[in-house]
Design brief:
The chain is built from 7 helices and 16 strands. It is an alpha+beta fold. Strand 7 and strand 8 form a beta hairpin. Helix 1 packs across helix 2, helix 1 packs across helix 4 and helix 2 crosses helix 3.
Length: 270
């Protein structure tokens, strides 16, 4: 593992040997081998690394079976009544793994240096790794919070500069620790998004109207999925009825607008 104390971001990687499509040796198993070598007892080694005696023997047997030569052997007799130890080959494998681990650590440190400001990469990875059922997850910065008696109106500016408005409870604002200038995610279900055309001069009650170009249309017998690119790298997905899609005459490359209520927006933070 390599850690960057200055940025508070760490790069971490696992080093494994594979054989016959199975994980053969990794840090946890090397730790078990090291404790066997140090303590001369698989019982003590298992306890030291926090696994059961049976699990330790299962791992040792698997390692021995997959290795070219045994790494661990039982020792019988002697003053202690026998025990478990590493073979010469086992000691050499542990030593070689240590060399690989050191090179791996240097590789991660070098990679950290080449990344520069890894904090921004970390924020991106956090965003794209989010797992939510809603089709639309947009990132932005909160610019204004107006609290009422029960609910609050939160204004965000998305990447690209488009404004987005959400209405959530005051309790949610407090629980999420939202404040002006902080980053947040806007989450909108595709079924909550309406689609229209020629709406620039229309007067509508929906607070969020984002217009752009139709990027994709997936038609089904009942519903139609429409993706609209609204600028700034943002795409809004909507699921409307098949009949509505036909009546609107939507085509890929054509102009369209997406609409959704402020109350349909769910806010989240990392």
């Amino acid at each position: 593992m390599s850690r960057s104390a200055k940025r508070g971001i760490e790069l971490e990687g696992a080093l494994w040997f594979h054989k016959d499509e199975q994980k053969f040796l990794g840090l946890d198993r090397i730790a078990l081998l090291q404790k066997i070598d140090e303590l001369g007892s698989i019982t003590k080694a298992a306890k030291a690394v926090g696994i059961s005696y049976k699990n330790a023997w299962d791992l040792v047997n698997m390692i021995n079976n997959l290795a070219e030569k045994p790494l661990v052997e039982r020792v019988t007799g002697g003053r202690g009544g026998g025990g478990t130890t590493l073979t010469a080959y086992g000691k050499e494998v542990v030593k070689q793994y240590g060399v690989l681990q050191e090179e791996h650590r240097r590789f991660l440190e070098n990679l950290e240096g080449r990344l520069g400001d890894s904090a921004s990469l970390y924020r991106l990875l956090r965003r794209i790794s989010m797992k939510v059922s809603a089709r639309n997850v947009l990132s932005g910065t909160i610019t204004k919070i107006t609290k009422g008696a029960v609910n609050a109106e939160v204004t965000m500016v998305l990447t690209g500069g488009a404004p987005l408005i959400a209405v959530i409870t005051n309790g949610a604002v407090d629980n999420l620790a939202l404040k002006e200038g902080s980053s947040a995610y806007a989450i909108i279900k595709a079924s909550s998004v309406m689609v229209g055309t020629d709406l620039h001069d229309a007067k509508i009650s929906a607070r969020n109207v984002m217009c752009g170009t139709v990027a994709k249309i997936v038609e089904g017998p009942v519903s139609t999925e429409v993706d609209v690119e609204v600028g700034g790298g943002n795409t809004i997905s909507a699921v409307i009825t098949h009949e509505s899609g036909t009546n609107l005459g939507l085509k890929v490359g054509a102009h369209a607008c997406t609409l959704f209520k402020a109350s349909s927006v769910i806010l989240g933070v990392s």
